Amino acid sequence: MSLVSPRYLHLWKDLQAFDFYFDRSIPFEKASLFVNSVLSLRKSRDIQKFHLTLTFDRYKSFDIKKFQAKCVEIWILAAIGPHLQELILSISSYCIKLPPSFFINCTNLVSLRFSGAIDMLVQDYSVHFPSLKKLSLGADIVCTPQIHYFSFSLAAPTSKLCSLALIFDVTVYMQWPIHAPVLDYPEFRHLHHLKLILLCFNSNLLGHVLEQCHMLQVLIIQSNKEEPPPLRTWQPESTTVSQCLKSHLTYIHLEGYQGLEDELTFAEYILRNGLFLKTMLIFVDISMDKKDKDCSLKRLTDIPRGSIMCQLEFDPAVSP
């Protein structure tokens, strides 16, 4: 605690990066006194990097836990502002709830990492990080260690997000609507259900997703028309058939089908190689010309199927 002595006051006043680490060996009362003292010396709220790692004693009373949670909230609020670029929070032992309103002014946040027992409900609240490039969410982020279902929605209209990591020990069911044109998808070895919401149909991305989701059983793809489709570089004939197609995928739903050659090529790849595929459901976009629609659906029905169980179904309103 001597670092807060008058001799070092000038160091704290203009410091822009903080890394606080406290485990159970440090009494929380001493830790809180130190952090409060340091943050109170700040001249202005222009912190650029803030790292906080805490391991609480889970056997403390409710009042003490409430006090600890309040301290964490105060520290985070002290760090958050338009100058913050990197925020790393790691909380262990019991859950800390953070309101999404805390992050309303993080317009320059580039890197955000949550791990441990952090709960932030964003279902009815929009959180915008226009400068975000790296997002990492750890296993206990939803405060349910026995999780069987997880829903996560990400909007990145500025295309700045480059890295996304969602880390789980066990994932049985996960609905993951994504609304980002440029994203490097992580690997999900045990993911069973996946829903993608795309700005446009992108077989380059979808081929990569299939390779990363080894046990995928259900895939739902919703294609919007907010951007023109990218140039296709994915070539199914030179692609090793993904593990999920050979042994797990049973259902795929293509929503917003427009009859593009890219869409047809991807659908053919699934139909030919989906050895356990039971259903491919296609909803055609209402803007599609009737003649083009009939021709495209006819081509789909003529594609040989790798699974004798496979049924090709269309939106009843457009069935050929």
Automatic annotation (TrEMBL):
Domain FBD spans what residues? 243-315
Q: Which Pfam families match?
A: FBD
Q: Where is the signal peptide?
A: none
Q: What is this protein called?
A: FBD protein
User: Source species, please?
Assistant: Medicago truncatula
